[in-house]
From TrEMBL:
This is Calcineurin-like phosphoesterase domain-containing protein. GO terms for cellular component: cytoplasm. Pfam families: Metallophos (PF00149). InterPro entries: Calcineurin-like_PHP (IPR004843), Metallo-depent_PP-like (IPR029052). The lineage of its organism: Eukaryota, Sar, Alveolata, Dinophyceae, Noctilucales.
Length: 396
């Protein structure tokens, strides 16, 4: 009886400590301007500050995007600080022109983002390294970043990012009638030199929303890219084509959960890793339940050079579907699972995908690589597994 009472008391104490940790203790450890200043001093930025205003190509014709995905921030000092170090390390090496977050900033399995104050803190920890460097950035939301799992709805998350104090954030609220919370586009402008005035767009980034863990069109599971988003994309793409003299405006599409066409891309000779545990049974790509025909629409429009996502922490490959590069980012956070030990010992295995566009003789060329926490650059030249995928897995 005494041992049983001690055990119960121990469990209760752990629960109380856990709740406290994600309340006052989390704010005390990481909240406030003083703590933010300390994080900024870990790896201070050493890149030339970008000019104010919209994202632009550089004088050398390049535009570099760093994609951070699946940070899964949780309120434990090692996890937070290792993730912040990864973000800062990549930014200091790449000096990008834009930072794109492709979902799952939150790690709700450890109660991260389950209160308004904690979700605000986690989002700010992710965004601040870009914000204080003056790098334009935007975020598409993951399945764990809003209700039913996180504290905020997607609309409330928009209020925080768009209606807050972030000067360099380029999120926009979706148009009326478009399903999703993070559905918008960001134009990449000319640098204003040569024949093109500085208000001339040379590329565009489409941020799409694969939704939260509420199922899709009556089917339980995770991942839904609604037809209304694809209709919005088609309309926007056509309008930009018209303004561009009838030529497709080169684009990159960013979202959280991969499309079924990633299976085709992998099976057709992709480069990189597919190491999700379910890969052994032919389901290592966790596709959306419904994609709205987005990949087919992009192929028909002929404007999307690349699509990139996250969600599957142990995948980082890139392949080709109908002329479109289908890519995963590299998991950047130390919460949740992955990357696997086969990719190297932590913290060296975490990092980001880098996408570089280059204007050359009136065309846009693209190349991509992985930048790791320790500064190494990985150019993927071969598939690291011989698995063949057969069907999507619709889990979380």
């Amino acid at each position: 009886m005494i041992l049983s009472s001690i055990a119960v008391a121990g469990v209760v104490s752990l629960l109380v400590l856990h709740a406290y940790w994600y309340g006052d203790a989390c704010s005390a450890l990481f909240g406030g301007s003083a703590r933010k200043h300390q994080r900024r001093q870990l790896l201070p930025g050493n890149c030339p500050r970008l000019p104010e205003g919209p994202p632009r190509f550089r004088d050398d014709g390049t535009f570099t995007i760093v994609q951070f995905t699946d940070l899964h921030l949780q309120c434990f000092p090692p996890s937070i600080m290792e993730t912040v170090t990864t973000i800062n390390s990549v930014l200091n090496v790449e000096c990008p022109d834009f930072v794109a977050f492709t979902g799952d900033v939150c790690e709700v399995s450890t109660r991260s983002c389950t209160t308004a104050s904690n979700q605000a803190l986690m989002m700010d920890i992710a965004a601040d390294p870009s914000e204080y460097r003056g790098i334009p950035w935007a975020m598409t939301y993951g399945n764990w970043d809003r209700k039913p799992d996180a504290h905020w709805t997607g609309s409330e998350l928009n209020d925080f990012l768009i209606g807050g104090e972030y000067r360099h954030n380029f999120n926009r609220r979706p148009q009326d009638g478009v399903d999703g919370d993070s559905v918008f586009h960001v134009l990449v402008m000319s640098n204003g030199t040569g024949a093109d005035p500085e208000d001339t767009p040379h590329a565009v980034m489409y941020f799409m929303d694969t939704m939260a863990n509420e199922g899709c069109l009556g089917t339980p599971g995770t991942g839904c890219l609604h037809e209304s988003q694809v209709a919005w994309y088609n309309t926007t793409s056509a309008a930009l084509r018209e303004k561009n003299g009838g030529q497709a405006l080169p684009a990159v599409a960013l979202f959280h959960i991969p499309l079924p066409e990633y299976i085709t891309a992998w099976n057709s000779g992709a480069k990189g890793d597919l190491d999700e545990a379910l890969g052994t049974s032919g389901q290592g790509i966790s596709c959306v339940i419904n994609s709205g025909g987005f990949a087919q629409a992009a192929a028909a429009n002929g404007d999307v050079l690349a699509m990139t996502c996250g969600h599957d922490h142990d995948n980082d490959f890139h392949g080709v579907y109908e002329g479109i590069s289908m890519m995963y980012g590299r998991k950047g956070g130390f919460g949740s699972y992955g990357p696997p030990d086969s990719w190297g010992h932590r913290p060296a295995s975490e990092g980001a995908r880098v996408i570089q566009l280059r204007r050359k003789e009136g065309r846009i060329e693209m190349e991509s690589w992985i930048r790791l926490n320790d500064g190494r650059k990985i150019v993927q030249t071969q598939a690291e597994a011989a698995l063949t995928q057969s069907e999507c897995f619709h889990g979380s």
